[in-house]
Amino acid sequence: MNIRPDKPEEACGVFGVYAPGQEVAKLAYFGLYALQHRGQESAGIATFDQGRVHCYKHMGLVSQVFREEILRELPGQWAVGHNRYSTTGSSRVVNAQPVVVSSRLGELALAHNGNLVNTLELRQQLSPERYPLYSTTDSEIMAQLLAQAVDGGADWVTGAVQMAHQCQGAFSLVIGTPAGILGLRDSYGVRPLVLGTLGERGLVLASETCALDIIGADYLREVEPGEWVWITPEGFTCGQWQRAQRKLCVFEMIYFARPDSVMEGGSLYSYRRRLGEVLAQEAPVSADLVIAVPDSGVPAAIGFAQASGIPYAEGLIKNRYVGRTFIQPTQTMRETGIRMKLNPLRDVLQSQRVVVVDDSIVRGTTSRKLVRALREAGVREVHMRISSPPVTHPCFYGIDTDNQDQLIAARLSVSEISQHLEVDSLAYLSWAGMLAATGEAPQKFCSACFTGDYPISPPDTLKRSKLMLEHVT
Asked: What is the C-alpha to C-alpha distance for residues 260 and 213, in angstroms, rounded to an integer?
């Protein structure tokens, strides 16, 4: 049995670039390369050249899917790209994006980050003869809804707005068309989307600012919740299709996005370091060393060490070349599977009382393996500190968290989790502390995975399938 990791699985990454005179396929490649952390199952790029679309997508990492000769076969003046982690629809090449469909005004290519909660209802609104669905994704339904609106007489922007009004859930979209690139964000802004400039005329849309940095683009601003942007050779226009009700996923700030990306006016490294500082104040402990679970726990561990005065050390070495593999380890390797990605430094850890800082625990599987590996390395005491509250509820907006009965904090108390993990002590950051560290109003964020307070109400059927333990809070 292949054990799933303790982390919630990533959202997807979207990218779009208008750059006449440049190799837009290569720009999209590097943009997706910077967004690889957001999805490792498939990658795709669609370019538009004089109204004609060229698209290539396949299973695997960006560097595995694309080669120089493939990128040379993707000419154009603008491009859209996508990295996928499956939240709706299985991990198959037919579900890879961008989704390309035909319309009255030509082919469109849609890249989607997020997840809809009314997918089944929307599916029934499409004629299978005129708007066939070949995948099992909500993204293809959105693309066909846009085609349907355009076929009904709408232009690209009006059609996208009509489509967006039908969709309930989280969606940050980058849509390539023969006329230009559309960016669109749901009114809650659950998933991020930013806008940048490239040279004198180029414009870029991306899930995170790190994708702008890699191609030398400058950050302009975020696409506002409920906003559309329209990039064409004639210029740039934007508008509000629905009133903003800002609810950025706080897990983007805690874990998903890269630490060098900018959100809410600052780098996420700085925010995560502040989480560690608050955690040290809320849950002090007597220890010899602070170590991080790399890489996502590093900023919080540094903040914890600085606030507590306990020295920070590297106690776990990460093998950064371990990605998703189709080769299954032997049973013996599975039993010590944590060593494949993390290996303890014995001479650093021997006989030490150690604070282990991580950003989250979802299932508790690999965390327990990690603690055992630390004990075997000679650690005298293991004190685990988590820089977010307990994850007690599943996400319906583009994060692949399990049914509630598989979330360890939904089933067990903190003391019971501590016993399960075999640690000397365990403490989580408080919900209030997590939000206070943002420096923003708490109501600006979605924290439903910690509270069960869903800003976009999922249908009862979806709730019943995931909220197995709704009586547990």
From this structure: 10
At 136 the pLDDT is 86
Contact present, 289 and 353 (Cβ < 8 Å): yes
Q: Are strands 227-232 and 52-59 parallel, antiparallel or unpaired?
A: unpaired
Contact between residue 182 and residue 229 where contact means Cβ atoms under 8 Å apart:
yes
pLDDT per residue over 364-395, tens digit each? 888 999 999 999 999 999 999 999 999 999 99
What is the four-CA torsion angle of 82, 84, 90, 91, rounded to 10 degrees?
Answer: 100
Please state, in angstroms and as integers, the Cα–Cα distance from residue 379 to each residue in 95, 151, 305, 465, following that order: 45, 66, 18, 41
Dist. CA 232–CA 157, nearest whole Å: 12
Contacts of 41 (CB under 8 A, 6+ apart): 59, 84, 85, 86, 91, 96, 324
- Greatest Cα-to-Cα distance within the chain, rounded to the nearest angstrom: 73
Tell me which residue of 57, 81, 85 sits closest to 70, measured CA to CA: 57
| Packed helices 365-376 and 414-421: angle between N→C axes, nearest 10 degrees | 50
Residue 311 exposed, middle or buried by CB count within 10 Å (0-12, 13-18, 19+) = exposed
Catalytic residues: 12
Task: Give this prediction's pTM.
Answer: 0.92
The rounded distance, in Å, linking the Cα atoms of 406 and 446 is: 21
Distance, in Å, from the CA atom of 85 to the CA atom of 401, rounded to the nearest integer, reads 12
